[in-house]
Amino acid sequence: xxxxxxxxxxxxxxxxxxxxxxxxxxxxxxxxxxxxxxKSSLFNAIIGRQAAIVxxxxxxxxxxxxxxxxxxxxxxxxxxxxxxxxxxxxxxxxHIAAQVDAAVxxxxxxxxxxxxxxxxxxxxxxxxxxxxxxxxxTVLVANKVDNPQQEALALESYELGMGDPIxxxxxxxxGLDDIxxxxxxxxxxxxxxxxxxxxxxxxxxxxxxxxxxxKSALTNVILGEERSIVSEVxxxxxxALDTPFAFEEKEAVxxxxxxxxxxxxxxxxxxxxxxxxxxxxxxxxxxxxxxxDAAQIATDQDLHIAGQVMESxxxxxxxxxxxDLMDEPTVRDERSFRRRVLSRLRxxxxxxxxxxxxxxxxxxxxxxxxxxxxxxxxxxxxxxSELTRAVMGAIARHLPPSQATGSLKIYxxxxxxxxxxxxxxxCNSPHRVHFSYERYLENTIREAFGYEGTHLxxxxxxxxxxxxIGQNRSKAAAKKTQYKPKAVKTDKPAKSTKSxxxx
Length: 503
Prior knowledge:
alpha/beta, Rossmann fold, GMP Synthetase, Chain A, domain 3, 3 domains, six-stranded mixed sheet, 32% helix, globular, disordered N terminus, disordered C terminus
């Protein structure tokens, strides 16, 4: 590799992944390989959804993608990376090489992917030697083994000296369990501090939004210093900046991120990396302050960002910045403006809306108090008796809708976790839970215990099945509801063997 590529022991380049692993307290598995061996397809197959872009064009994946995976009770983070070439020829390939190096350094286990159809190439040998020098535990995978007759193609990968190759097919989703089993065998023991009480750690508050809505200016006024560069040029802030601070004797960590813009508007290179890192900052925070521009309120991109916060089960506060520039009395009516914003954010109607001016420093104290209140509710346990009384009373007033296959019966409910508040409903058949009834139960809990700005996680268990609100139903439930053709009965007796021979 050229001298411009950072070495694998570059600690600075791997800070992000170390932080990712520490915050989640989960082992990290990095998927690496030369271009177009099927890394992104394998990544999508492992996590069970289309997260990475898959293309026949080599080098489509240019940044790291991180996803959480649970395999037989073992939680881990899986990282997809771009294709690494022995000698980068342009700036983009050098950026990709730096990203791959950072992922490898921060990983607990590396999965080296080869193409069984192409055999072992010079690039494969280069990567294998590079991983040997890194001293990272490595799982060798021979991809594109689409049928048993092709398994012999994987034997050629023994040449790399990285152990027994695992034949897999990302396209047909075969061999995935073998990969995760092999990776889990290398995982370090979980430290006792990894499960520390989340209620006692400082709140992590992320400032997110479209480019140039005033996020960095808001960060500077909160911290009382020029921590971030403020410019009229959209996209000035490149990295997510973590800074501890205190407000009214409460400790917190403030995260300022690069502006998130539409995927099609992201230019290749450093901005692509910074935008994806900003998206991942949502997963790392407890409360997200969604900054909107008062002059361009609730655009489609604002809705996209808010949707990411909701899907990550994070607390949320909407900050309407540049309120000082709105001089017309009809526009300055906060009540009507708030209704307008929440009508656009109809999927999160209980989110607090605060009007601020980062330039003049107005509304900042109110914004921070609101963010801390949301965090407090997010970490709050409710009384078991009060929870049972509220939920069972709601069920008695509005019974679950009947279905042709039977009726849903909910036996009990309990709170299982905080951050986000997670509630488990024990019932007879989770696959019978209709989404409208899910929403009804969620609203019942939210109204009874004041969960403003906090997304709740509801889970239904019973009969060996699990259904989490907002996620796909379990395989068991899907299998149970799957249509199976019945055998057609006939009154005609089957012909005997002898009669068939005579005919």
